[in-house]
Design goal:
Elements: E1 10-16, E2 21-27, E3 34-36, E4 42-48, H1 56-59, H2 67-78
Length: 86
């Protein structure tokens, strides 16, 4: 690996706000916020919206998508009728 061309990596704590889970890993992400970790050291803290702790693919929880409402809205918008209305 050539020196001077790669960004510096350091330990960073990522906190998933949705699942209230934090994990320590190495990253190039910078943050002004810090957190004291379980080992007694202080690390930069980066808040994330979703991680493997809260993503439906990894947790097995699925979300219900309102496809019927979307289809009806599309049909109203573009003037199509459903089979029941014919």
């Amino acid at each position: 690996m050539r020196s001077g061309i790669h960004p510096e990596t350091r330990p960073v704590v990522f906190r998933d706000r949705a699942a209230d889970v934090a994990f320590l890993t190495r990253s190039t992400a910078a943050s002004a916020r810090t957190i004291e970790w379980e080992d007694g050291n202080t690390y930069p803290l980066v808040d994330v919206e979703i991680s493997s702790a809260s993503h439906p693919f990894y947790t097995g929880a699925s979300r219900v998508v309102d496809t019927a409402g979307r289809v009806e809205r599309f049909e109203r918008r573009y003037g199509r009728t459903t089979a029941a209305q014919r």
